[in-house]
Amino acid sequence: MKRQVxxxxxxxxxxxxxxxxxxRNEEELTMKYMGFIEDLRYRTDEYNDSFNTEEENRYPxxxxxxxxxINRNKAITQSSFGYDHENCLRLLAENGYDGEPVSSRKMNxxxxxxEDSKDHNFPPQEDVxxxxxxxxxxxxxxxxxxxxADFEEFLIKGDxxxxxxxxxxxxxxxxKYNLNEKLIFQSKLKEFQKSLDKRTLYLLFEDHWHLAxxxxxxxxxxxxxxxxxxKEDLIYYExxxxxxxxxxxxxxxxxRESQFGSNxxxxxxxxxxxxxxTLTEDLDTIYIDIENTRLKNADVExxxxxxxxxxxxxxxxxxxDAKLNNERLSVVLRxxxxxxxxxxxxxxxxxxxxxxxxxxxxxLKEASAKRNSLMDEWKSxxxxxxxxxxxxxxxxxKKEIRDIRKMIYPxxxxxxxxxxxxxxEQQEELKDILIEALKIDNSELGYPPNFVNHDMRSLExxxxxxxxxxxxxxxxxxxxxxxxxxxxxxxxxxxxxxxxEIVILKNRLNxxxxxxxxxxxxxxxxxxxxxxNNQDKQEMFTEKMxxxxxxxxxxxxxxxxxxxxxxxxxx
Length: 571
Prior knowledge:
Layout: H1 8-11, H2 13-19, H3 24-27, H4 36-49, H5 61-66, H6 107-111, H7 125-134, H8 139-157, H9 170-179, H10 182-195, H11 198-207, H12 211-214, H13 219-231, H14 242-260, H15 263-334, H16 341-347, H17 349-371, H18 387-408, H19 410-413, H20 417-420, H21 424-436, H22 452-455, H23 459-475, H24 491-520, H25 523-532, H26 535-568
Helix pairs in contact: 7-8, 8-14, 15-17, 15-18, 15-24, 15-25, 15-26, 18-23
């Protein structure tokens, strides 16, 4: 994983300035710009000279086998940079590259890269990068190498005395800046820095074997490193300068520390990770218990409707009539004149329609409960599941519930730009809709007690819930990232993320425990369950319901008579 350089990247500037930054009062007047041509010549000579010693060097074995001075003075020549050379330089596939030539130019053009006369030719940016890779430069030296080549082309081509093949030589133009026009040189550096397309340069490095991200640099940090090259005037110096090496070592140390931190940082990270993992597991377990309790409670409700649905519907009908009759009586008593039946009904329209809808919902639930009754032979059978299979399904269920819960939490949704644009009322409405999606579907109910899915929500049922929620979110064009891993690219960011996440998890855990407790101790559910488990109580309950229905019928008859009497008084 890529890791972002932490803010300490900037806090150690004082140390860096002390170690490697030139002191202006000592070096500014004598500092001279060293051209890229000198760097190119130096790297070529360095490569050739490396074979005149038995000491180990940075070049891969296969590369040394192909380009080594066997019975020759030089391993590589200026011509060998051209792709049409018989033994042109290549980035070998054996070393993890593409096997293609270093250069996109022919020999005649490549030789002119080394010329500091008016015949000089500037190498393409990608060719410069590939040459640096061939010379096995480390990332920071390679970046300096490319930046310097780009700057030199910018400087020379922008000079009024430069004309291809006929103007001043490259050497003369550079010397002019070194001797007489240092302030102009500085302004040119700033112009180049401002015109530099860092994004394109970053992509160039990434297109070549992810050179930047392999060095754990994202674009932001890549850009910061480039800025530092200019702040420290490193473009002035030779690519092989000790100052570039020191700069590279400094950057690597910053990355190392930002990745791994001190021993105390590592201890803190491991401690927080352990707390986070424990809380995550505890929360997943509570969520499983919540969903299974939701299932059991829904099963109680369904069995209650199967057993007493007809009585409950009849009672509800009488209760609704009583509510409507009382409201009709109130309308008549408030009216100064006699009202027709149509006028009275118009006054109670809203109440009547609401009660009618509630009754229709109840009848549908009762009908569904009866329809979901399974065949009698199921009662003597079960789904054979091994402990291993059951444990695996529970883990999969945990993951589904974790993803579902992450989708419905506002502190997760808030990061989506579409959600952020919703009003508070819309956000509350969406929250209610998402929570509603968690409710038990009738297809999940009706399993006999010896079935696995009698006591726990099925994996398929949870997947259906997740799909419903995803559909709801997609209707709003809200996208939720369900990745579940420690966030942050540096150890410090991970620690900060874990600290915050631990607080969130503790709050969620407390809320989940409260929700589970409420579901387990729901008075209505517990009383219905006790009733279903006791035959004697069922008989008493039925008798009580029938008496109540009879009383309501009498009350409704009396109310209707009173309405008629009171209304007739106003004729």
